[in-house]
Structure formats: structure tokens, C-alpha cells
Amino acid sequence: MKISLLIVFFTTFLFASCTKSKTTNSIPVITITSPTENDSLSNSKINIDFNVKDEVDISTVKIELKDKENHNLFSKITSEISSSAYFYSNFFTINANTNTNTLELNITATNEFGNTNEKKIKFIVLPQTN
Questions:
Q1: Is the peptide bond before 35 cis (omega within 30 degrees of 0)?
Q2: Do the beta carbons of residue 45 and residue 124 sit within 8 Å?
Q3: Dihedral angle, C-alpha 52, 80, 123, 120, nearest 10 °
Q4: CA-to-CA distance for 11 and 27, rounded, in angstroms?
Q5: Per-residue pLDDT at 21 exceeds 50
Q6: CB count, 10 Å around CB of 76?
Q7: Among 46, 54, 58, 56, which Cα is nearest to 98's?
Q8: Number of domains within the chain
Q9: 112-115 long-range contacts, CB within 8 A, separation 24+
Q10: C-beta neighbour count of 122 within 10 angstroms
Q11: C-alpha dist (Å) from residue 37 to 32, 54, 119
Q12: What is the pTM of this model?
């Protein structure tokens, strides 16, 4: 009886430690497809398009769009994703009276083990012409 319990204990311990060590080092991979670094956009609608992938479930994705003075123009946090892939595609409308402005898109993703990755890109929004 003691041997059986000992075998069950070691088997459970071995399985749990192998699974955890495989996944705790992974970090989310962020790919921003639109806009791209140093884009010059003349449209008032900016397409924000990116994906996040990981070996384990992604728990949180944060999107921030800021101007060159670090003012927050847009912010969104999506939590409880519970999937190893997250896709985002949406339009953000810039005020038609805006001057030429450098904007920064910042994506931060965290997986179920608390491992975080961040990706930032800068792009230019040109003044709108009527």
C-alpha cells in the first residue's frame, strides 16, 4: 500500500513539474501589422491591426495610443482571454483638425504565468485636407 501511494505521488509530482517548467518561460509574441513603424498616414481613420500568440493562454492584452506629448488618445484592456492566440482589428478616428503628429502605439500582452511582452511603434498622422 505504501509503495502504491509513493508511486502515485512521484508520478503526479513528475508530471506537474514537467508541465510547469515547459510553459513558465514562454512570453507572448506580438505582431503589429497596421500601422507599421514610421508610416505616414493621411487618412483620419487609422486601422489598428495586430495579433498576439503564445505557447500558453494569454490572459491580458493592453492597447494604448499616445501622442508625442504622451497624452493618451485611446486605451483598451482585454482580460480573461484564455486562448493562446488573440487577434485585434479596429479603426481609430483622428480628429479632422489635427496637425501633423507623431503617435505611438503600445501593445502589452501577459500570459497565464504572468510573463509579459511589450511592443511599441511610432507613426505619423499628416494634417487632414478638405
A1: yes
A2: no
A3: -70
A4: 28
A5: no
A6: 12
A7: 46
A8: 1
A9: 112/56, 112/57, 112/58, 112/59, 112/82, 113/23, 113/24, 113/26, 113/56, 115/24, 115/25, 115/26, 115/27, 115/28
A10: 15
A11: 9, 23, 11
A12: 0.77
Residue 126: band (very low, low, confident or very high) from pLDDT cuts 50, 70, 90: confident
Q: Give the model confidence (pLDDT) of 29-74 as tens digits.
A: 999 999 999 998 887 788 999 999 999 999 999 999 998 888 888 8
Alpha-carbon Rg for the chain in angstroms: 21
The answer to the question of residue 4 being in a domain is no
Give domain status of residue 69, yes or no: yes
Domain with 108, as residue range(s), is 26-125
| Cell matching residue 96 | 479632422
Q: Is the pLDDT of residue 106 over 60?
A: yes
DSSP SS3 for 10: helix
User: Per the domain annotation, does 36 fall within a domain?
Assistant: yes
The 3-state DSSP class for residue 65 equals: strand
Residue from 89, 103, 73, 78 nearest 28 by CA: 78
CB atoms within 10 A of CB 52: 27
